[in-house]
Design a protein that fits this description.
There is one protein chain. With 278 residues, the protein is α/β, with parallel strands linked by helices. The chain has 2 domains: 31 residues, no CATH class; 188 residues, inorganic pyrophosphatase (n-terminal core), CATH 3.90.1640. The chain has 10 helices and 5 strands; from the N terminus they run αααβαβαβαββαααα. Strands 2-1-3-4-5 form a 5-stranded parallel sheet, sandwiched between helices. The structure holds manganese (II) ion. The site of manganese (II) ion has 6 residues, from loops. Its EC number is 3.1.-.-. Pfam families: DHH.
Length: 278
């Protein structure tokens, strides 16, 4: 066993103690990267806006058009919990925004490997209009080329580090870890990026006066259980923005105000919802 010492920085400790935090707690917080009292406020109002995500406007514009025109969408997900929850979030979000039910494509780990591959694109129907990746795609150069060759538009949403080359000719690439993206929270999971795409698209559709009495605007808080679950399961860093997502999502799960699938998993695992922690 190895004991790893974390350093508490002087300035944050002072800022925290002068805000009334116990000095021992202040040192623990500081050693975990908390810079000041604001970082301890986990209210949803502190959640970063999507606006600093590179290409998010283009992505939202393209998805809004797809929703309004009932285009045929293919979601390219992944087989881990981040990819699966992110895909669920996108499908549910697109339906809630008034779009047509998208088809879901998850690669076979044994035969197709990971990500949007030409093999996965080959399974998509010929009349697909738009492919949206979630938790993958930033390295899918051949897969995007195959999709473009079939005439499909592509929106990449991902959070993995970008390689030297990016996929070409996409409608948009949304990834906090791509070069030139100013979004400060680089530890956002794939499910968080998917959440931001739905948030930005909702704002775009609101601008277009798409919502009304006959088509109510969805409340984004209904997706927070999925965001919390997959941010934790993907072992994303507990930086402030992720802690806000997690605190809000876990609170909803504890109050059983979450999707029935998560309650069913908890039941099988023998865990009482009110006892759920990260
Ligand atoms: Mn992931």
């Amino acid at each position: 066993m190895r004991i790893q010492l974390r350093q508490a920085e002087h300035e944050p400790v002072t800022a925290l103690t002068s805000a009334g935090i116990d000095p021992v707690l202040a040192r623990i917080y500081s050693a975990r990267g908390v810079a000041g009292p604001d970082d301890l406020d986990l209210g949803l109002a502190g959640l970063a806006s999507y606006t600093q995500l590179k290409d998010i406007d283009q992505a939202a514009k393209r998805l809004a058009i797809a929703i309004k025109n009932a285009e045929k969408l293919a979601i390219a997900g992944d087989f881990d919990s981040d990819g699966a929850a992110g895909a669920s979030l996108l499908i549910e979000g697109i339906l809630d925004l008034g779009g047509r039910l998208p088809s879901l494509f998850i690669p076979n780990r044994m035969t197709q490997g990971y990500g949007l591959s030409p093999g996965l694109v080959a399974e998509m129907p010929a009349d697909t209009n738009l492919v949206i990746t979630v938790d993958n795609g930033i390295a899918s150069i051949a897969g995007v080329a195959a999709a473009r060759a079939r005439g499909f538009d592509v929106i990449i949403t991902d959070h993995h580090l970008a390689g030297e080359r990016l996929p070409e000719d996409c409608a948009a690439i949304v990834n906090p870890n791509q070069p030139g993206c100013a979004f400060p929270w680089k530890g956002t999971a794939g499910v968080g990026v998917a959440f931001y795409l739905i948030a930005a698209t909702r704002a775009k559709l609101r601008e277009d006066e798409w919502f009304g009495d006959h088509r109510p605007e969805p409340n984004l808080s209904k997706y927070l259980d999925l965001v919390a679950l997959a941010t934790i399961a993907d072992v994303a860093p507990f930086e402030r923005n992720n802690r806000i997502f997690i605190a809000a999502g876990l609170e909803r799960i504890r109050q059983r105000r979450c999707r029935i699938g998560i309650l069913a998993l908890l039941e099988v695992a023998g865990v009482e919802p009110e006892n759920v922690t990260a």
